[in-house]
Amino acid sequence: MNRVTAFALSTVAALGLTTGLAAPPALAAPPNIPSASTAASELAALTVAAESHESTYDRDLFPHWSTVSGACNTRETVLKRDGVNVVTNSSCAATSGTWTSPYDGGRWTAASDVDIDHMVALAEAWRSGAWSWTTSRRQSFANDLTNAQLWAVTDNVNQAKGDKDPAEWKPPLSSFHCVYARAFIDVKYEWGLTVDSAEKSALSGMLGTC
Fold it and tell me: For residue 1, what pLDDT is reported?
């Protein structure tokens, strides 16, 4: 069983979905979510440092959404990846489909109810080291389809999260905390970002639920 399949099965259990209701494609995961043990090793390897440069953050320093293929940009690509029976128009905009938000278990049939969340928020990344990156690297981070950085989630839940780290915000669905921590840690690890002490403690606690 690969990690994506394992994630889909674990998320079915986390959301409390019955076998009859669960459609694995609705719970499609971003790629490369590590195991809890790998995430724990990655967390131990992260540099612990106070956040900085908060006052100089500007969202425009992280260009998104980038064109992926044809008329499809990163947002539209994630909507198709994480939805079921997604239909798009000639501009690649999703006109119908079903999406299940792993953060809260919400199920939506309109793309307008779904946000594409950056697991590690752009402002959080900036404060954790991205302030020193080139614009090109920040663009790659903001449109990262290789790691578990982009998630299709309920829009108002994403807005409640904002740019908070796990010491300040956790998904409403507590049974998802294990996967959330594993993904968050891995993104920071893969991109060489730092964690502050409160954030590291919160991530460690969430890993303890795995």
Answer: 38
